[in-house]
Amino acid sequence: ANEDKKRAIEEGLEALASNNFQITIASDKASPAKKNTRSIDILGNDRPGIVHELSRTLLKHFINVEELHTELRSAPMSGDELFAAEVEISVPESIDTEQFQRELDPSCCY
Fold this sequence. Notes:
The chain has three helices and three strands. With 110 residues, the chain is α+β, with helices and mostly antiparallel strands.
């Protein structure tokens, strides 16, 4: 029964992939590494693709998003729109923290 459910989910994801979505399926059985939870805050000028850029960096380091809260704010002096996010992530113990921090866009993440 579980294999049937798994296959149905995979088929649904494959259907999405055919509609210009990129889908990656990974089994947690293959990587039993422990993970720990951390929080990151993001604040920067709103622009198209900011969430995509963050997601790509997280995926590259096998980081899972547990919670994501986003909002647009007005910059205090200029009134420009700022993108703000609080992200709770699960991080593999094997992560190279320094490399990960270097890859985060320094103009939006602190």
